[in-house]
Design goal:
Chain lengths: 355, 475
């Protein structure tokens, strides 16, 4: 790990790493929209219940409308990183799954409950419910996604713990145990999700007369929170682990991450000054979000590879790379990507023709 | 070489599912997922057909059905189908991490291809769901066709991976991904599943039509008769079932056709339920063009669910004693590792302790419990589903030792015992102790003669899998 990611890694490991990082970044975009969006909905619904919220909040209305689709895409986008993580860290990922057992399996029904609560929240019939009941629906949905995020953060920490901890955890079989660093990791992801959500919401609301402050202030707070949690997390690492994040392997991406955060800060401050969702600051915020996500993903992997990377692991990647089908994956990736783009174009034209 | 092999046997923490057999857990999740996924695939095709009927003026009410039906489809398949799909991965990891690991190693690029189709399916489906009623005819039909195509292709890819588990074909020699994918049962499975998908969609469609309050009885009958066209391919099911039976391994076929009472019973349930649905559909709906009310349609959907459940049970069961035929036994031990584990012991290198070690009065029983956990617990429980304790309750101690040592000959759908004579004895003692009411004190057996007998039986059994035609002439 003396060269920048992914250089310096054996070819097969580098290939799977890049695919993992890119697909995970794609998943994080939609995951952030769902996690922070459902959080926004929950806060808005509770405020309304307490008599302080704005009934016609355009952000809440838009998010409520799009969250089910966002979750569907987030789950779909999550399939690929879930696939590649099994190739990259098979034994570690599986062992963490098995040790978390009931809690890990609970993700499935919890995710399903969250999904249906999102549909329920946008159902017209729910508008007639009491404010308390509507708040319960929104808070319930957010709680479901928070649980899923927490479970993934905890799984990641447990996977990196190593066999001594695994054996101890298995023997003790605690009903509920959490790695000490899990809350900090969760804090980074949760806060980092807010500016990403704000950017997507900004694009959705662009053109109308909307209150920028509704998402700009949360975005700024989210950036500050993510930096704060990341600093606490960094502080809790060993000197060797810190070297992984600042060494040659991850240093360029740490820089990318920092630049991405700065871009987002500038973009949201600019947005506040303009008092409307304008194209230029939204482009800057989008670039910043992409840079921050990619930077975070690679820095995260540098820590994991630093802890788990070994010749034995690389040999498994080399063996996996002998499996056939990659050219066809690339072909279908391109073709289906083009068809997806065509679907959007066709839908736009179809709507225009109809009107 | 041995050290390399020993380090290649991965040990994972094993969870206890209580009285539930692990196969039931993954089977339950699998059946729900398969039913929902096949419904979504068939529904895509059905919607295309009805949209075309509406646009060509052949069935004016079809468009109302399409816009109403699709919302049901989205709610059920996008939500439950997608999440149970992820759930299948998680459950498989819980039950057999090594099996899913092998599948991912061999077919990850094909799974990645399937992922691109998932994206296409979700995007086209949601665009139609959201904008369908406001789109022009051309865009509507195209979006539906893309949705249906993407959904069917997701079946195409996963079908190759699942059918490979039962009939890996030439993959066993070449390890070529395409030899494994286009395996002997690929085509019959694909065609059969496509017809099942069309059937489920049509039956659910009949239920939905009955909920359309703005249609009168005649309109509903006309629409039902159109939807029933999707039930016509059921006539080919017997031929496809025979084709499938012909291409699966001979021993698997024998389990289904009488070798295993449970398998035969489930095959009969699947065939019986399919016959009932097919008979009603072909004679009542297609030939006599009858109306079907919501209650009857719901019963037929339930029958289809039963047939799917029984069929999936048969498909899973027919693989025994493997999870990947010829490559990995049900207990996640490869055929090549059996001889090695016979020498060094199956749990010698297992780092995970027993969670309830103090419950066992002797070290030998603790060893037996670890052997049970590693080799037996994936398919058996002690007292719950597929329980061992009642199975051996009437056996004499030597009978237990013999049957375990010669496991693959006792029952050819069991894998060979992959451990030492001492481990056979420890497992036997565990079963005897358990059936004796788990007394607090228990005497360890150290009789060298007994161990010698076990070793002889292990040697006689060999390390090869069992065969149903071992002592009988092939028919």
């Amino acid at each position: 790990m003396t060269s920048a990611f992914p250089f310096g890694l054996p070819g097969p490991t580098a290939m799977y790493m890049v695919l993992y990082a890119l697909t995970l970044a794609l998943h994080v975009v939609f995951m952030s929209y769902v996690l922070a969006g459902s959080g926004y909905m929950a806060v808005w619904a509770v405020r309304r219940w307490l008599g302080r919220g704005d009934a016609g909040d355009p952000v809440a209305e838009t998010v409520r409308d799009w969250l089910p689709f966002g979750l569907g895409v987030a789950i779909t986008a999550g399939v690929a990183p879930l696939l590649f993580v099994q190739i990259l860290y098979k034994k570690y990922f599986y062992t963490a799954n098995l040790l978390l057992f009931n809690r890990w399996m609970a993700i499935v029904p919890v995710l399903m409950a969250g999904f249906y609560l999102l549909y329920l929240a946008k159902a017209k019939s729910v508008d007639g419910w009491s404010a308390r009941a509507r708040a319960a629906v929104s808070v319930g949905a957010f709680a479901c996604f928070l649980f899923v995020a927490f479970s993934f953060a905890d799984n990641h920490m447990l996977a990196m713990s190593g066999q001594v901890v695994w054996v101890e955890r298995y023997a003790q079989h605690p009903l509920f145990a959490v790695d000490g660093l899990t809350p900090l990791r969760l804090g980074v992801w949760l806060c980092g999700a807010v500016p990403v959500f704000a950017t997507i919401a900004g694009w959705q609301l662009r053109g109308g007369e909307h209150r920028v402050t509704a998402v700009a202030y949360p975005a700024l707070v989210g950036i500050a929170g993510a930096v704060g949690f990341a600093a606490l997390y960094y502080n809790s690492l060993t000197a060797l682990q810190r070297d992984f994040t600042t060494g040659a392997f991850a240093r360029p991406y740490t820089v990318v991450l920092v630049v991405g955060l700065v871009c987002q800060l500038v973009a949201w401050a600019w947005q506040l000054r303009l008092r409307r969702f304008a194209k230029s600051p939204l482009i800057l915020a989008s670039i910043g979000a992409v840079m921050a996500i990619l930077g975070t993903v690679v820095v995260r992997e540098s820590l994991r590879l630093g802890a788990l990377g070994s010749e034995q692991l690389f040999a498994l990647h080399k063996r996996a790379a002998t499996a056939g089908g990659m050219p066809l994956f690339v072909l279908f990736g391109v073709v289906n990507g083009a068809v997806i783009a065509w679907c959007f174009v066709m839908t736009r034209r179809g709507l225009r023709n109809d009107t | 070489m041995l050290n390399a092999l020993a380090s290649a046997v991965p040990y994972y923490p094993v969870n206890d599912f209580g009285p539930l057999m692990k196969g039931l857990v993954i089977g339950g999740m699998g059946i729900i997922h398969v039913f929902l996924a096949q419904f979504a695939i068939g529904a895509g095709m059905l919607l295309c057909y009805l949209e075309w009927l509406a646009q060509s003026g052949r069935e004016p009410n079809a468009r109302r059905f399409v816009d109403g039906y699709f919302r049901v489809l989205v709610l059920i398949s996008f939500v439950a189908g997608a999440v149970t799909g992820v759930g299948m991965w998680f459950t498989t990891i819980q039950v057999s991490p090594r099996t899913i690991g092998m599948m991912v190693d061999e077919f990850h690029w094909l799974w990645a291809i399937e992922w691109t189709f998932f994206f296409l399916e979700v995007t086209s489906g949601y665009l139609f769901y959201r904008y369908g009623p406001r789109l022009d005819d051309k865009a509507r039909l195209r979006l539906l066709m893309i949705y249906a195509g993407a959904a069917w292709f997701s079946l195409f890819w996963i079908n190759g991976i699942l059918s490979w588990q039962l009939t890996p074909g030439h993959w066993l020699e070449s390890h070529s991904v395409w030899a494994g994918f286009f395996n002997p049962s690929f085509w019959p499975s694909l065609v059969f599943r496509t017809i099942v998908a069309m059937t489920i969609a049509a039956l659910v469609g009949c239920v939905v039509i009955n909920t359309m309050a703005d249609l009168d009885r005649d309109d509903k009958t006309k629409l039902i008769n159109k939807v029933a066209h999707f039930l016509a391919p059921m006539a080919a099911m017997p031929v496809l079932a025979l084709w499938f039976l012909l291409v699966i391994p001979a021993d698997s076929r024998e389990w289904v056709l009488g070798g295993s009472a449970a398998m035969m019973l489930f095959a009969a349930v699947a065939a019986g339920a399919s016959t009932l649905i097919g008979g009603y559909s072909l004679i009542g709906l297609l030939r006599q063009k009858l109306y079907i009310n919501g209650a009857t349609a719901t019963v037929l959907v339930a029958l289809a669910f039963g047939a799917t459940a029984a069929g999936e049970f048969v498909r899973e069961g027919a693989r025994k004693p493997y999870t990947v035929r010829g490559a990995l036994y049900s207990n996640s031990i490869t055929p090549a590792e059996v001889a090695h584990l016979r020498r060094v012991g199956s749990v010698t290198d297992d780092p995970y302790p027993l969670r309830n070690a103090s419950a066992y009065p002797t070290e030998q029983l603790r060893l037996g419990a670890k052997v049970y956990r590693f080799q037996c617990s994936v398919c058996h429980t002690m007292d719950g589903a597929n329980a061992l304790a009642p199975l051996v309750g009437s056996w004499q101690p030597d009978q237990i030792r013999l049957n375990i040592a010669k496991l693959q000959h006792t029952k050819p759908f069991m894998p060979p015992f992959a451990g030492t004579a001492g481990e056979v004895e420890a497992l036997s003692q565990l079963l005897i102790w358990h059936n004796a009411g788990k007394p607090r004190t228990w005497k360890s057996t150290t009789d060298p003669a007994a161990l010698g007998r076990i070793q002889t039986w292990l040697d006689q059994a060999g390390v090869e899998p069992g065969r149903t035609d071992r002592y009988r002439r092939r028919r």
